[in-house]
């Protein structure tokens, strides 16, 4: 399809002449098998044209609710008065008028070709009447989206089981159901030159900083994309530091997470066509937070949260710490442990660094293979991985048993990070630090840590420091991050 | 006008100062103090901290008279253009010297205790690159990284002290004032040199955005450093006793001595981590001051372009200042300490004196 | 939440910021990738578990016990572990040099891997070697980076080498046996740092545990045996002077406040049989006193014990009997202490028990003025020993058991 290159062209108004209008639309939408131009005469012999996209419109409803009333006698008997008012008052009053005749709630008046095309491609049926420069778009969406299911990427034991779907209106309904307040604002815009994806900016008025909303909107306006397939297209475009490996927005498929974050003064971007919504501004601590932290006993969630912090560090540092300590600082290992490590490593031909690299890369490959393959084959991959790496490689003397334990622990640790995007970072950062540890020992490892901390300190997520509330420190903020149950605070 | 747009809070400044003072002192101060003060060395930081108090007072005083100006900028107004420029030039020569010495101290420590075969250039070079990166990102980032590392340092030090409790012999506390109080006062010279580094406040005060509680916060910072130094000295005394001054880095020996249930042992790496994180902040602070001072002296608008060359210069200085560990020891001994005290304590005192005189004369004349 | 909204100008440097981080990382990796200078794989280490110091003529003979990673069982089959451990998991290498550093250097030439001292937790010094002075050993042990300050120091009247050559049937290595014995506090509990402190301190002396070799079970190889603690080696200045064994060593340990794990039989006058008491805790405090320019020391010993054997026919729960036992015990302890003091003051004229440390602590001025004459002062010092004993428990039984017909009356 030829893109709408010339915007001026499309801003063109409809003419009173139906045939001209038809030609204008035909010119833009003509070569499409699923666009139907349906010309007919209404009950009072007005010529009319109905244009719709058969793949998006519910044609049965179209016939029943729009076409048959218009063709029927009922329509003709009232038509004179109706047409008169339609002509004279234009679209201000037309909604109420037409509402009498067509049993439908969502009707929009359309007066430019541009709007018309937009409406048709969004699944609305456009009705044009003879001698009228205004069209009406009836919303008759065909329900093609899947049912609301449990979110697969973020499951919880306790908590709502609804997850976002690919359908924007379903998603909005899920959100609105949770927040029955006029303060919840849902601002819509479109993004993507070809996809015209609808993006809804959600926030709670009165809680959010208005400057933040202005900033987001200006960034969204500046964003020029060809298309939006997934929310990351947007995230990449509007994030502060686009080259940072750290995610600067949370992506979630849980409406309860979005709602809770809105209540904390963040905004959300809900994007059509993907179940993943974006939430910002966030800090590194949001990355290590699971919705369940708020749903469980406070001591338990505090414990789990700290466990997660520790394991997040482990997932980045453990292999490098092992490499650094066994090749540079053997005196740190308890004697008995060193003896068993030395026994296990006796037959191993590789240096510890190479051994760690081999194992980590093999592990990442296994994980990737397991994720991409169909579920049934995926299980086979893990069996092969466990057998080959866990058993055969150790008994063949290619890798040492302690290294297998280290890699397994690291793997578990990286699975503990609740946000997938943050987990990816830990996998990525592991390798450079491992090299540093292999060349300068613990000193190298600490230099790596320093570089990461410098980067995190300079990183901002929509103006909020990524390390807040710890740096810059605010006692109140720390308290808030550590307290899992701030339901009382939500009330204010 | 300032060469960095970033601002930090007064608490951040206070936190920034902790590793600036403590990083190097925790390791070598106990031994050096004991050299002069003998058994009473734990008291010396207390006497030494008075210097810190005076320096903080001077910095705040100069800043009150010439608000939102660094000491280099205000010196132009206090002393006049030419003497002021000379004053700044003195610091331009002194700061790379000091920074180079700190870098070298780090390099020697790592080379002696952790990576004996790694070239010194690599050890120091990697650290300088990391610090330069930090400094380039501005005072805000320097402040934040220092916050993170200070919390790590405090946690690790506490851990070390806790694990050592079993081995400590508090009876080593006595005798007190074996040779009268004089040795402990003499021994306060090395800690005083460290406390005089509080003068960095005079360089950093204009970057503080809220200054209402600045005095209190600075005193709190001083209290913290003093207590940490006293506790470190006491731990060394209680563990190693009179042998403390025969070791180069007594705290390292102390950490090595830890053995908990045959499992947790030899955790000197913890002390090495404290040292690396601390010295990272310390080098960053001095590199930042050096860069901004240079930029101010030459009247640049932005200090960022000079960071990389100046870091390289400091690295070069770290080779020029000394040729080996005994040289460092000499520079850190009394004569070296007096040299440090002159720049970090003497000159600012003179400057403050001039400023007060000027104010008095002005007041008298007007 | 602190929010500062980044304006447009802020987003651009943010991009550059990460680029700069990348640049720095690349620079660092260039510096670093040139080599791994200090890397030593565990496979390339000869892990030393214990060090022995002997003398050969006026030269130093240094022995290292090295762990053999291959020979020690491990692996899959656990059943054969008994046999593998007795075939030995350690070996020894010995080198001779004019001083300890040279000997160590020659030792390296006899081992194909990097000698690693970081796990040497036991140092055995033969009495012969310590007769020639501990100074050079202590200096080396506290100067050479790898050696642990926390390593236990033992003494032996045999060759240190023979002790390290043992392959104990119970533990993995004789080093481990020695270390465990140090942990059990069977003798004195002296680390390298403690030894240096006590030799360099005002008392200028030290006491080490003395290790001997248990005669192997008949039919076994002479290496399959354990070291065991017997007696103490006394060191004056940095020279070995004398060995003491029980009962004298008990008195010495008592005054050092290091007596543990001991059961003492106490004979009761007038009654046939004896009562054995297990020491539960003992605290020895030294209180120095200078009155009228006369230096004296008060030694107070608090001992608590538990009855573990009663071969008399009378119950210990009887208060009279109880007091009697306590009195007898007290007498015995006082005698032990006084003998040890006599040895220290009159015979060897050495301040093993740290009297001088106490005087320095409590009378720093007077100590300073009297420091030169300390030896004479010490020799003639009046020492009071006061022992308090208390029996806190009589074990499971109250009355004596196994006395024929006892339960009838």
TrEMBL record, chain A:
<dbReference type="InterPro" id="IPR050768">
    <property type="entry name" value="UPF0353/GerABKA_families"/>
</dbReference>
<dbReference type="Pfam" id="PF03323">
    <property type="entry name" value="GerA"/>
</dbReference>
<keyword id="KW-0812">Transmembrane</keyword>
<feature type="transmembrane region" description="Helical">
    <location>
        <begin position="433"/>
        <end position="456"/>
    </location>
</feature>
<comment type="similarity">
    <text>Belongs to the GerABKA family.</text>
</comment>
<feature type="region of interest" description="Disordered">
    <location>
        <begin position="73"/>
        <end position="98"/>
    </location>
</feature>
<protein>
    <submittedName>
        <fullName>Spore germination protein</fullName>
    </submittedName>
</protein>
<feature type="transmembrane region" description="Helical">
    <location>
        <begin position="404"/>
        <end position="421"/>
    </location>
</feature>
<keyword id="KW-0472">Membrane</keyword>
<dbReference type="InterPro" id="IPR004995">
    <property type="entry name" value="Spore_Ger"/>
</dbReference>
<feature type="transmembrane region" description="Helical">
    <location>
        <begin position="378"/>
        <end position="398"/>
    </location>
</feature>
<feature type="transmembrane region" description="Helical">
    <location>
        <begin position="309"/>
        <end position="328"/>
    </location>
</feature>
<keyword id="KW-1133">Transmembrane helix</keyword>
<feature type="transmembrane region" description="Helical">
    <location>
        <begin position="267"/>
        <end position="288"/>
    </location>
</feature>
UniProtKB/TrEMBL annotation, chain B:
<feature type="transmembrane region" description="Helical">
    <location>
        <begin position="185"/>
        <end position="205"/>
    </location>
</feature>
<feature type="transmembrane region" description="Helical">
    <location>
        <begin position="44"/>
        <end position="66"/>
    </location>
</feature>
<feature type="transmembrane region" description="Helical">
    <location>
        <begin position="78"/>
        <end position="94"/>
    </location>
</feature>
<feature type="transmembrane region" description="Helical">
    <location>
        <begin position="217"/>
        <end position="241"/>
    </location>
</feature>
<dbReference type="InterPro" id="IPR004761">
    <property type="entry name" value="Spore_GerAB"/>
</dbReference>
<feature type="transmembrane region" description="Helical">
    <location>
        <begin position="147"/>
        <end position="165"/>
    </location>
</feature>
<keyword id="KW-0812">Transmembrane</keyword>
<feature type="transmembrane region" description="Helical">
    <location>
        <begin position="271"/>
        <end position="291"/>
    </location>
</feature>
<protein>
    <submittedName>
        <fullName>Endospore germination permease</fullName>
    </submittedName>
</protein>
<keyword id="KW-0813">Transport</keyword>
<feature type="transmembrane region" description="Helical">
    <location>
        <begin position="114"/>
        <end position="135"/>
    </location>
</feature>
<comment type="similarity">
    <text>Belongs to the amino acid-polyamine-organocation (APC) superfamily. Spore germination protein (SGP) (TC 2.A.3.9) family.</text>
</comment>
<feature type="transmembrane region" description="Helical">
    <location>
        <begin position="303"/>
        <end position="322"/>
    </location>
</feature>
<keyword id="KW-0309">Germination</keyword>
<feature type="transmembrane region" description="Helical">
    <location>
        <begin position="334"/>
        <end position="353"/>
    </location>
</feature>
Automatic annotation (TrEMBL), chain C:
<protein>
    <submittedName>
        <fullName>Ger(X)C family spore germination protein</fullName>
    </submittedName>
</protein>
<feature type="domain" description="Spore germination GerAC-like C-terminal">
    <location>
        <begin position="231"/>
        <end position="395"/>
    </location>
</feature>
<keyword id="KW-0449">Lipoprotein</keyword>
<dbReference type="InterPro" id="IPR057336">
    <property type="entry name" value="GerAC_N"/>
</dbReference>
<feature type="domain" description="Spore germination protein N-terminal">
    <location>
        <begin position="38"/>
        <end position="209"/>
    </location>
</feature>
<keyword id="KW-0564">Palmitate</keyword>
<keyword id="KW-0732">Signal</keyword>
<dbReference type="Pfam" id="PF05504">
    <property type="entry name" value="Spore_GerAC"/>
</dbReference>
<keyword id="KW-0309">Germination</keyword>
<keyword id="KW-0472">Membrane</keyword>
<dbReference type="Pfam" id="PF25198">
    <property type="entry name" value="Spore_GerAC_N"/>
</dbReference>
<dbReference type="InterPro" id="IPR038501">
    <property type="entry name" value="Spore_GerAC_C_sf"/>
</dbReference>
<dbReference type="InterPro" id="IPR046953">
    <property type="entry name" value="Spore_GerAC-like_C"/>
</dbReference>
<comment type="similarity">
    <text>Belongs to the GerABKC lipoprotein family.</text>
</comment>
<dbReference type="InterPro" id="IPR008844">
    <property type="entry name" value="Spore_GerAC-like"/>
</dbReference>
């Amino acid at each position: 399809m030829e893109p709408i290159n010339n915007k001026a062209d499309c801003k063109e108004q409809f003419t009173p002449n139906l045939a001209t209008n038809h030609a204008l639309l035909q010119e833009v939408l003509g070569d499409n098998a699923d666009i139907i131009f349906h010309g007919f005469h209404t009950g009072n012999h007005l010529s009319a044209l109905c244009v719709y996209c058969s793949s998006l419109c519910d044609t049965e409803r179209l016939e029943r609710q729009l076409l048959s009333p218009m063709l029927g006698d009922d329509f003709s008997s009232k038509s004179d008065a109706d047409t008169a008012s339609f002509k004279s008052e234009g679209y201000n009053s037309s909604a109420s008028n037409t509402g009498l005749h067509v049993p439908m709630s969502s009707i929009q008046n359309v007066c430019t070709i541009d709007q018309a095309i937009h409406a048709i491609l969004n699944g609305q049926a456009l009705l044009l009447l003879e001698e009228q420069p205004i069209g009406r778009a009836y919303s008759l969406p065909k329900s093609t989206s899947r049912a609301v299911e449990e979110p697969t990427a973020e499951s919880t034991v306790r908590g709502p089981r609804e997850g976002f779907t690919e359908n924007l209106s379903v998603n909005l309904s899920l959100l609105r159901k949770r927040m029955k307040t006029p303060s919840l604002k849902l601002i819509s815009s479109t993004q993507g030159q070809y996809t015209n994806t609808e993006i809804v900016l959600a926030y709670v008025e009165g809680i959010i900083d208005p400057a933040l909303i202005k900033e987001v909107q200006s960034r969204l306006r500046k964003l020029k994309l060809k298309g939006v397939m997934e929310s990351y297209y947007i995230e990449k475009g509007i994030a502060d530091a686009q080259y940072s490996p750290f995610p600067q927005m949370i992506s979630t498929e849980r409406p309860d997470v979005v709602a809770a974050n809105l209540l904390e003064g963040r905004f959300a971007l809900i994007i059509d066509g993907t179940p993943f919504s974006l939430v910002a501004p966030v800090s590194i601590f949001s990355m290590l937070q699971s919705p369940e932290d708020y749903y469980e006993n406070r001591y338990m969630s505090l414990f789990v949260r700290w466990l997660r912090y520790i394991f997040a560090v482990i997932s980045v540092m453990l292999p490098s710490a092992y490499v650094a300590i066994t090749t540079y600082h053997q005196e740190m290992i308890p004697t008995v442990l060193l003896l068993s490590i030395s026994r296990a490593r006796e037959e191993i031909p590789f240096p510890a660094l190479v051994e760690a690299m081999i194992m980590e890369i093999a592990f990442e490959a296994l994980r990737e293979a397991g994720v991409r393959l169909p579920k049934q084959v995926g299980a086979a991959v893990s069996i092969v991985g466990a057998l080959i790496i866990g058993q055969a490689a150790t008994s063949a003397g290619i890798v040492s048993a302690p290294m297998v334990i280290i890699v397994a622990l690291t793997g578990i640790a990286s699975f503990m990070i609740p946000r997938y995007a943050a987990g990816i970072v830990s996998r990525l950062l592991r390798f450079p630090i491992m090299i540093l540890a292999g060349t300068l020992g613990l000193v190298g490892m600490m230099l790596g840590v320093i570089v990461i901390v410098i980067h995190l300190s300079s990183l901002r997520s929509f103006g909020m420091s990524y390390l807040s509330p710890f740096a810059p420190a605010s006692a109140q903020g720390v308290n808030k991050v550590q307290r899992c149950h701030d339901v009382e605070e939500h009330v204010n | 006008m300032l060469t960095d747009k970033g601002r930090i809070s007064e608490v951040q400044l206070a936190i920034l100062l902790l590793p600036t003072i403590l990083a190097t002192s925790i390791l070598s101060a106990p031994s050096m103090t004991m050299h002069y003060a003998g058994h009473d060395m734990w008291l010396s930081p207390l006497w030494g901290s008075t210097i810190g108090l005076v320096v903080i007072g001077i910095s705040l005083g100069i800043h009150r008279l010439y608000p939102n100006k660094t000491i280099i900028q205000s010196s132009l107004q206090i002393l006049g253009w030419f003497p002021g420029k000379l004053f700044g030039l003195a610091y331009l020569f002194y700061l790379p010297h000091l920074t180079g010495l700190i870098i070298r101290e780090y390099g020697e420590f790592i080379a002696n205790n952790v990576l004996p075969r790694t070239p010194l250039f690599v050890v120091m070079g990697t650290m300088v690159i990391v610090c330069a990166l930090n400094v380039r990102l501005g005072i805000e980032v320097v402040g934040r990284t220092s916050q993170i590392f200070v919390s790590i340092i405090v946690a690790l030090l506490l851990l070390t002290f806790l694990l050592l409790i079993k081995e400590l012999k508090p009876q080593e506390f006595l005798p007190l004032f074996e040779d009268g109080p004089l040795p402990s006062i003499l021994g306060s010279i090395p800690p005083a040199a460290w406390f005089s580094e509080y003068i960095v406040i005079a360089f950093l005060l204009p970057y503080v955005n809220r200054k209402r509680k600045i005095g209190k916060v600075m005193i709190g910072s001083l209290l913290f450093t003093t207590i940490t130094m006293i506790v470190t000295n006491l731990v060394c005394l209680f563990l190693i006793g009179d042998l403390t001054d025969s070791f180069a880095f007594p705290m390292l020996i102390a950490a090595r001595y830890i053995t908990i249930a045959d499992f947790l042992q030899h955790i000197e790496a913890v002390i090495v981590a404290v040292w690396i994180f601390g010295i990272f902040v310390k080098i960053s602070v001095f590199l930042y001051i050096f860069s901004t001072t240079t930029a101010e002296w030459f009247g640049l608008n932005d200090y960022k372009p000079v960071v990389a060359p100046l870091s390289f210069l400091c690295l070069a200085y770290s080779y020029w200042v000394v040729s080996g560990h005994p040289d460092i020891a000499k520079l850190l001994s009394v004569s070296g300490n007096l040299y440090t005290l002159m720049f970090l304590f003497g000159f600012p005192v003179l400057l403050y004196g001039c400023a007060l005189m000027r104010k008095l004369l002005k007041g008298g004349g007007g | 939440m602190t929010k500062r909204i980044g304006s447009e100008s802020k987003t651009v440097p943010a991009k550059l910021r990460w680029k700069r981080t990348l640049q720095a990382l690349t620079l660092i990796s260039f510096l670093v990738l040139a080599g791994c200078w200090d890397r030593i794989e565990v496979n390339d280490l000869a892990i030393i578990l214990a060090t022995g110091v002997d003398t050969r003529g006026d030269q130093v003979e240094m022995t290292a016990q090295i762990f053999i990673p291959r020979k020690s069982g491990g692996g899959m089959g656990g059943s054969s572990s008994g046999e593998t451990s007795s075939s030995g998991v350690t070996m020894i290498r010995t080198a001779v040099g004019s001083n300890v550093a040279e000997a160590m250097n020659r030792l390296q030439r006899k081992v194909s891997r990097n000698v690693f001292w970081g796990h040497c937790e036991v140092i055995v010094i033969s009495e012969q070697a310590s007769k020639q002075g501990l100074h050079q050993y202590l200096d080396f042990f506290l100067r050479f980076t790898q050696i642990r300050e926390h390593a236990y120091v033992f003494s032996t009247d045999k060759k240190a080498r023979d002790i390290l050559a043992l392959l104990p049937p119970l533990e993995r290595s004789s080093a481990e046996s020695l270390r465990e014995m140090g942990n059990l506090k069977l003798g004195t509990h002296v680390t390298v740092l403690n030894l240096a402190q006590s030799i360099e301190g005002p008392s200028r002396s030290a006491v080490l545990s003395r290790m001997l070799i248990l005669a192997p079970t008949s039919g076994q190889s002479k290496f399959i045996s354990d070291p065991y603690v017997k007696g103490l080696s006394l060191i004056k200045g940095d020279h070995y002077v004398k060995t003491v064994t029980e009962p004298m060593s008990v008195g010495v340990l008592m005054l050092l406040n290091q007596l543990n794990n001991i059961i003492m039989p106490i004979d009761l006058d007038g009654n046939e049989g004896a009562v054995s008491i297990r020491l539960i805790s003992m605290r020895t405090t030294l209180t120095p006193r200078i009155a009228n320019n006369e230096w004296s020391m008060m030694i107070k010993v608090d001992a608590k014990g538990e009855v573990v054997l009663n071969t008399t026919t009378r119950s210990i729960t009887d208060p009279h009997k109880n007091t009697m036992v306590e009195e007898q015990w007290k007498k015995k302890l006082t005698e032990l202490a006084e003998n040890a003091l006599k040895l220290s003051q009159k015979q060897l004229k050495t301040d093993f028990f740290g009297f001088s440390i106490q005087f320095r602590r409590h009378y720093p001025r007077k100590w300073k003025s009297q420091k030169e004459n300390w030896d004479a002062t010490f020799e003639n010092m009046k020492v009071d020993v006061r022992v308090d004993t208390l029996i806190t428990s009589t074990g499971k039984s109250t009355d004596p058991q196994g006395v024929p017909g006892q339960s009838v009356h």
